[in-house]
Every structure is written in C-alpha cells, then in structure tokens.
C-alpha cells in the first residue's frame, strides 16, 4: 500500500472549525497543526514554544484571521512526522533543561496546562468513558492532552506531590475506507500522553533505529518497560524539579485503527452534550414567564389602556407628543447578522477564530446605525451635545476594553492582543450610553426575569468558555435568545406603563435600565460560578476572569437595555398616538 506522507504541525489553543454537510473531505493528509497551551486554573494561554519542546528546523507562523490573534491561537508548525497507515516509534529530540526551563515546566504542570493539536481539522483529544444513569457507557472526548501530572499515591510509579512531564505521545489515528473513494479519511485523532524516564545505551542518536533505548512506554498507569520487556521499577516517570538541570528525551509512536465512523459523523464524540432535558426544562420555564408577561401586556393594551384613553380629556398637540416620545428610530439590529451567521453555519471545526472575526466585522459595520440612532434619539430628547454622544458611542466601550488588556500584555500571554491588532480594533465601535439610575428598586426587579430566561443556558456557555468544553446546541440557544428578547421588551413595557400611570414622564432611562439591569445579575452569577466551578489560581488570572466577565456583562447590559428602550419607545408612541388631538 502506498504511503501518504504527513507533516505534523503544532499549535496550542482550542480549535474551532467550520463544517457544513457536503463539504468535500480529504482522502489524504497534509499538515497536522497544533496551537497553544491552555489551563482551566490560570486561563492564560501560552505559546507552545514558550516551553522547552522540540522545534522544527524553521518555526512558521500561520495566522489565518484576526480572530485567531484575539484568541491566542496562532498556528505554528511542529517537528512531528507521520506516514499514513504506518505504525512506528520515533525519537523526536533530546533537550537539556536549564534551571529556568525546569522551573517553568514545573509551574505549568501544576497549573494543569493542556496542549492542543489539530490534524485534518480534528482537534487532538483524550478519550474518556462515561457511565450513563441507565448503566450504559459512552465514549467522550476531552480536547487536548495534559502537559503532565502531579504524582499521587493512587498513580503507580509516581512520588506524591511530584510534577511529571508527558514526554511521550501515543497517537491513535482512526481512518475510514469506502469503495466510493480512493485512500482513507481521518475520522478520529486520539492522544495518549505518557511520562517516561528514557534510558539509552551508547551514543545519542536522533534516529530511533540507531539509538539503543533501554525503555519502552507502555501506559501512564504502569511503569515503562526495558527493551527486554522487564519492568524498570516504580520510579519510571520523568519527574521535573524546580531549578533542576538534566536531559529530556521526547518520543512518540503512531497507531492506526480502522473505523466504521463516516467522515460526516466524525465530530459526534466531540460535540456530545449529554441529556438535553435540562435545556427543555429551562425553555419551558422561560416560556411560562413570557406567557405571563404577554397576558399582562395584553390586559394593559386591551382593557386598562383603552379605558384611560377614552377618559383622556386634555390631549396635547402633536408637537408636544413628538417632544415627549421622540421620533421612531430604526430597531436595534446590530446583533442580527452575527446571530444569523452563528445559527446558520457555525461549527467548531471551522478555521480558528473565524466566528470571532466575523463578529468583530459585523459590529464594526453596525457602528454606522449605532452612531446614527444614538445621536438621533439624543436630539429627539432635546439634547444639545449630540456630537459628544456620537463620539462616546464610538469610543467609550471599546476604550474600556482596551484598558483591560494591559494585564495580559504584562504577563506575556499569547492571548494578549498585539499592538498592531489593537490599532485595528480601535477602528471598530460599539453602541454605548451613559449610566443613570432612577428608581433603583423597580430597575433591579425588572432585570430578574430576563436573566432568569437565560441563566440555565448561561451555565453551559460559561463551561464552554472557561473549562474548554464544546458547545453545540445552537438550536436551544436560538430559542433562549428569542425568549430573552420578548421578556426584555415586555417587562420594560409593563414597568414603563406603571411609571406613566404615576405621572412620571421621564421613562427613557428607566426603560433602558429596567431590562439592562440583567447584566448586573449576570456579573453576580459569574462570581458564584467562579467560586463553585473554577479552580483559578493567582491574582492575574483571577483579575482577567472578572475583567472579561465585566466586559461581557456590560455588553449584555447594553444589548438588553437597548431592547427595553426601543420597545418602550414604540409602546409610548402607540398609546399617545391613540389620543385624539383637537
């Protein structure tokens, strides 16, 4: 059988992919990629080659889009070489650790960093066996593989508390063959990391056939074997100590397994989300809230409001009506193109950062209607500093985000945005309004229902972002977002009507803050999530987490507040337009 030659690329970041049924698969392999080191304890991604690993003759950066830079997922090539269908064991290289390198490795291992690879747009994964409540077992994938492990009494061959480096990788590549095409298609990419304290006899050689290795890796739960298949002893793992020097031998082997999984179904194990009953329960609960609010709004419009209008004996003229309500601007549509893009065609196997790039471009283009609506609405409310409002709309929110990125730059994280990229982002703008609080109790009460509509789905989204899990239930997300929009509109209308009944005509900021206050609950939820679900260590990672959640909560506040404001504006215009004017 002819061999198709593979060159393996290394990259250390979560990988997303764009996948549409019918896209032509590859019957040959050409470039495995790896992107970055990531950790659930520090949340700071680092470049793969920031650690003492084997490098190819020339390290080539492959930046595909702006989203990859923002995500810290710049692809780089690696020294791994794999041949299609060929089972082999290879020596990658030998590195002599300097004290600083050993200390860095020791720290990263204790911080639970993981390495992420991709091959044929499939991310490397470690296999997990999960038992279901009915007693059945299923196979699931966890993205990437751990950089190392901390020894414990339960792990054979390790010293409790010691840091061990995974210096041997066992690639298990699954392929599918069919009479409909020539060659084979890759449908699985598993990695089994091992820690082996290699020993060899004679002179060192990078050629495994010439190097007389005295150890052979057999598994992470067992000590390595000598070449004569006898145990090497209980201390077979490669332990990394702080400020210690010594050689590290990196090796890998490749195993090919035939599979009945077709190319179109190869992502199923990655995207398995478990039981979806909790999603349906959340949606049904939110729909009950929507129906209740809809009934209240209908009662106001059909009974109370009709009676109030009929008893209204002192109508204002149309000029005063326009002065009170302002003209009707275009509805908020900045999120629509991005959401349409997500729900129609997003898939985790697309080019890394593609969705983020499309989102940023969408927001940049939507800056034009954002500035127009902001200044137009401000002038309609008799504001005089409309130019200042336009400038703040374009600069306030992105300026606040740019200020928070300094901590990442100071930590030399690959997730930090380079200066050139920051210049590009400065050209993009978002809708921003000032913060002005009136009627704090009503405002806080108004944010409970919109947040309640999304908090179940929010848990899965945050788990995907902060614990590096896949999220692929966009159908549920679309329903939840629709419920959120309806809830924000209706709760703002109800409270706005009660405010007008109390002869308080300053409804605009109250309407904005009523639904927008759900962003405050979102940030409060992020605090609870931090203490209950995450194990983040260190001041800078903690600061980064809360900074990002504050940025996201602010954006959520702006989006939900805008929905509430425009809904109330339409409502006020409708009820006052029904009043007869003499």
* Cα distance spanning the termini: 92 Å
Low-confidence stretches: 1-23, 28-36, 220-235, 313-335, 341-350, 428-438
Number of E-type strands: 21
User: Helix proportion of residues, in percent?
Assistant: 40-55%
- Gross morphology: elongated
Largest sheet: 5 strands, antiparallel
Mean of residue pLDDT? 71
Radius of gyration in whole Å, from Cα?
Answer: 29 Å
Domain module count = 2
Strand content: 15-25%
The assigned structural class equals: alpha+beta
Structure description:
- With 582 residues, the protein is an alpha+beta fold.
- The protein has two domains: 267 residues, no CATH class; 301 residues, no CATH class.
- 43% of the residues lie in helices and 19% in strands.
- The chain contains 16 helices and 21 strands.
- The strands form seven sheets. Strands 2, 3, 7, 8 and 11 form a five-stranded antiparallel sheet that branches. A four-stranded mixed sheet has the order 6-21-14-15.
- Helix 15 runs antiparallel to helix 16.
- The N terminus is likely disordered.
Q: How are the elements arranged and paired?
A:
Blueprint: E1 5-10, E2 32-39, E3 46-47, E4 61-62, H1 66-71, E5 75-83, E6 88-97, H2 99-110, E7 113-119, E8 122-123, E9 125-131, E10 137-143, E11 145-146, E12 148-150, E13 163-165, E14 168-176, E15 185-194, E16 200-201, E17 212-213, E18 215-216, E19 225-226, E20 239-240, E21 246-258, H3 268-271, H4 277-310, H5 318-325, H6 336-345, H7 354-380, H8 386-404, H9 406-410, H10 419-425, H11 440-446, H12 448-466, H13 474-501, H14 508-516, H15 518-533, H16 539-577
Parallel strand pairs: 14-21
Antiparallel strand pairs: 1-5, 2-3, 2-7, 4-5, 6-21, 7-8, 7-11, 9-10, 12-13, 13-20, 14-15, 16-17, 18-19
Helix pairs in contact: 4-12, 4-13, 6-7, 7-8, 11-14, 12-13, 12-15, 13-14, 13-16, 14-16, 15-16
């Amino acid at each position: 059988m002819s061999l198709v030659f593979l060159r393996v690329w290394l990259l250390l970041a979560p990988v997303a992919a764009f996948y549409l049924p019918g896209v032509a698969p590859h019957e040959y392999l050409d470039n495995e990629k790896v992107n970055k080191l990531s950790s659930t304890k520090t949340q700071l991604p680092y470049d793969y080659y920031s650690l003492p690993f084997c490098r190819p003759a020339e390290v080539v950066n492959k930046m595909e889009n702006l989203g990859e830079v923002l995500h810290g997922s710049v692809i780089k090539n690696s020294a791994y070489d794999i041949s299609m269908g060929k089972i082999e064991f290879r020596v990658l290289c030998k590195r002599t650790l300097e004290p600083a390198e050993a200390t860095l490795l020791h720290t990263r291992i204790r911080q639970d960093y993981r390495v992420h690879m991709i091959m044929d747009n499939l991310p490397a994964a470690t296999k997990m066996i999960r038992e279901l409540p009915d007693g059945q077992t299923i196979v699931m994938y966890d993205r990437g593989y751990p950089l190392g492990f901390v020894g414990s009494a339960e792990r054979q061959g390790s010293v409790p508390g010691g840091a061990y480096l995974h210096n041997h990788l066992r690639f298990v590549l699954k392929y599918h063959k069919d009479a409909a095409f020539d060659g084979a298609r890759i449908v699985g990419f598993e990695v089994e990391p091992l820690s082996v304290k290699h020993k060899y006899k004679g002179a060192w050689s990078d050629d495994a056939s010439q190097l007389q290795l005295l150890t052979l890796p057999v598994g992470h739960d067992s000590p390595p074997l000598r070449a004569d298949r006898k145990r090497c002893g209980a201390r077979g793992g490669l332990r990394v100590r702080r400020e210690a020097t010594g050689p590290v031998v990196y090796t890998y082997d490749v195993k090919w397994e035939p599979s009945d999984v077709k190319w179109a179904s190869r992502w199923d194990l990655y995207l398995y989300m478990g039981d979806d009953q909790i999603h349906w329960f959340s949606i049904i609960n939110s729909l009950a809230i929507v129906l209740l609010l809809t009934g209240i709004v209908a009662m106001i419009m059909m009974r109370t409001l009709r009676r109030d209008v009929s008893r209204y004996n002192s109508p204002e003229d149309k000029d005063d009506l326009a002065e009170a309500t302002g003209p009707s601007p275009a509805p908020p549509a900045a999120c629509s193109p991005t959401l349409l893009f997500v729900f129609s065609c997003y898939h985790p196997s697309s080019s890394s950062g593609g969705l983020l790039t499309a989102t940023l471009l969408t927001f940049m283009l939507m800056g034009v209607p954002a500035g127009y609506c902001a200044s137009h609405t401000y002038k309609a409310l008799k504001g005089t500093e409309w130019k200042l409002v336009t400038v703040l709309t374009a600069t306030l929110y992105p300026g606040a985000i740019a200020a928070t990125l300094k901590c990442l730059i100071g930590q030399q994280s690959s997730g930090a945005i380079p200066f050139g990229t920051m210049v590009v982002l400065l050209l993009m703008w978002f809708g921003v309004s000032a913060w002005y609080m009136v009627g704090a109790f009503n405002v806080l009460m108004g944010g409970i229902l919109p947040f309640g509509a999304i908090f179940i789905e929010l848990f899965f989204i945050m788990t995907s972002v902060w614990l590096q899990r896949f999220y692929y239930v966009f159908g549920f997300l679309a329903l939840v977002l629709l419920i959120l929009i309806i809830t924000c509109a209706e709760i703002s209308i109800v409270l706005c009507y009660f405010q007008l009944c109390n002869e308080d005509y300053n409804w605009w900021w109250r309407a904005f803050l009523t639904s927008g206050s759900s962003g405050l609950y979102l940030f409060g939820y992020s605090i609870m999530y931090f203490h209950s679900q995450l194990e983040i260590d260190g001041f800078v990672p903690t600061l980064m987490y809360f900074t990002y959640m504050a940025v996201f909560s602010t954006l959520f506040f702006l989006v939900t507040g805008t929905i509430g404001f425009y809904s109330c504006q339409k409502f006020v215009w409708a009820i006052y337009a029904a009043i007869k004017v003499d």
